[in-house]
Amino acid sequence: MKVNNTIVISIGQAGNQIGASFWKTLCQEHGIDPLTGQTAQGQEPRGNWSSFFSRLGDGSSGSYVPRAIMVDLEPSVIDNIKSTTGSLLNPANLISRTEGAGGNYAVGYFGAGREVLPEAMARVNAEVEKCDNVGGIIILHAIGGGTGSGFGALLIESIKESYPEFPVLSCAVLPSPQVSSVVTEPYNTVFALNALRRTADACLIFDNEALFELAHRKWSIESPTVDDLNLLITEALAGLTASMRFSGFLTVEISLREMLTNLVPQPSLHFLMCAFAPLTPPDRSKFEELGLEDMIQSLFDNESVFAECSPMEGRFLSTAVLYRGVMDDKPQADAALAAMRDKLPLTYWIPTAFKIGYVEQPGISHRKSMVLLANNTEVARVLDRICHNFDKLWQRKAFANWYLNEGMSDDQISSLRASAQELIQSYQVAEESGAKAKSQDASTPSVRSPSAPFASDVAVGDSAHRSGTSISLKDIVDRGKN
After folding, report:
1. 71, 126, 205, 281: least surrounded by Cβ within 10 Å?
2. pTM exceeds 0.85 for this model
3. At a CB cut-off of 8 Å and minimum separation 6, what does 30 contact?
4. CA-CA distances (angstroms) from residue 481 to 155, 258, 393?
């Protein structure tokens, strides 16, 4: 069976900083030198290395190159990555310009982003050609910045236009005033949400508001920095991709497509949140190991999720728990997770939406760890907070001139805000319908029978069933020209 090859694209300052941390961690887990791409004594890397790396050369002198593309409209972060990663990364895949997006979505989407798009897509095409079996594309970006939001949206649209069959997972960092560097972040985020809603197959959110509090409370850091928050994100991403990079229980590899298929019950409901356990500081992890039941309890704690909301007060549309580490604990983990499942506010019309994956290979910092991926209706609270901040700016047209001067119009901006509201309402409707007594809908068949396999009835890539109310930014622009 062919290994699924996954391409990772980092966009903007935050996306590339996370990308650099992510690839360093993956190299360590696979036994690859993060500066040369080589292995000790020319040995084969651990696990399914070809899922995230391509091989350059033969024999003991061969090296392993991340399937990575990094793009930024200003040079500082890319230049730093070039100077600190040795010969690990393909220099042709490190793309930057000189002026940046100035914290403006419109520059990333309409202006400088259009100029860099052909080069970025050429590198995407080159990476696709190197793959034997493309399993999906992961995008790392912060949607509060101009490049991460504007160019991120533009590139995702271009990728789905060229490769509609490839599942695309956006890992999007949402802004927080506590770690804000751009006053226009609410604008950029709302504008980007339209493209993520309409084009991406799924969007995994990392809410800086929640990450800041986690680093402060769990890691006892008085004033967490961006690097601290990025380390939390890296822990989660390494756990999330472990099932793609190492053989799991019964040697089953869980591909990105399979994972997303199980987490997205309807194409319009594809915004996910995550949690990681144990949340002990990496430098203390071997001294403070959590018991399995405590770890699971922590995983589902409202204060542990990487989004500023309370999942236990919403409805879980779908849930996946990915365990990695000591397999002796598997029977105990099965029992504890089964007990936890009975406590969760699940959606009655998806009765089997609780999946578990096991990977024997532990992470770098923890002998055993877990990642929770959840499609939960409480994501509407996170999005509503962003929209509320947007409204406070837009009511006074504060900083609006920066977008209007780049060619956007009042009508376009209002339409994009309306699209974000439709997304919020779709989750509110799902929460209300999921809370109804099952007896009220006894005549309607379940989405899946209890004996259904590890796959959803709705294919993630089925764009024909996407929400008919989503607004294409291209359509809005074309409409404005008429």
Report:
1. 126
2. yes
3. 45, 46, 47, 49, 53, 64, 245
4. 23, 41, 26
